[in-house]
Every structure is written in C-alpha cells, then in structure tokens.
Specification:
The structure is a single chain. This protein has 154 residues and is α+β, with helices and mostly antiparallel strands. It has 6 helices and 4 strands, in the order H-H-H-H-H-E-E-E-E-H. It has a 4-stranded antiparallel beta sheet, with helices on both faces. Helix 4 packs across helix 5.
Amino acid sequence: MRFFYLILFFLVPLIFTGCSGSQEPATPLQTFKTYVKAQKQKDITTMKLLLSNETIKMHEDEAKMQGVSLDDIVKRESLISPDQTTVEYKNEKIDGDKGSLEIKNGYQGWETLPFLKEDGVWKIDGKGIFDQYEKDDEESRQKMQDIINQGKQP
C-alpha cells in the first residue's frame, strides 16, 4: 500500500505539470526566423499567419485596388531580398504587446522591424512599417519646406 501512495504522490503531479501546455509564445526573433524560412520556401500560408491583422487588411485593400490576389501581394512584400543568402539581426526588444528587431537590409543598412502581440502570438507589423515610412516622408517634406522658407525674404 505504501508503494501505491508513493507512486500516486510523485506521478500525479508530474502528469499534471506535463499536460499543462504552458508553452511560451515565439519571440519576435523566432517569428522573424520562421517568416524568412517560409519566404525562402515560398510558403505564403505561413507568411500570412505571421503578419498582423492590420497588415493583412492593408494587403487585402492593396490587392483589391490592383485586381490581384492577397497571395500575390504577400509574395511581393518580402522582408529580405530574394538573393540575400544571410540575414543579420540585432537588438530584439519587447515592451508589453509591442516588439521590434533590427534587421540588415539588402543595401547593408539597418532597419527596425516592428512586431505586435495578437492573441498571445507575435506577428510582424507591416502596417507599422508603412506608417513609419509615411511619417518619415512627412518629416522630410517639412524639413524641405523649412529650408525653402528660410531662403525667402520677410
């Protein structure tokens, strides 16, 4: 009888902890690596799963305007150039449900890739990239306007 209680005492907690399924979600870096692998294998389904909801919506709108499929847009919007054989990255950051990772682009410059955590899963925030490009363009236009205005006589 003592043997039975020992087994019960040690095995039951082990079974419950083994079945709890409390696996940590992939990090932004792991998500990026999975995306790059899917891109190289032309696995559009996996690529779409790793994009944020807002990014998918943005791509759907673009596809509709161009009269092409969502898959065509996702194929075109790659994070790395097709001829890039290695991908360098650094500075993974996580702040609540937002994250980022710096990646080296095909022009040997560093770009910040934003991530969002949606339903407990890290996703690439392509919409965030687009929004940052728009912000940078507006800032550049404003700087140019300031330079032009400095040359004017009052």
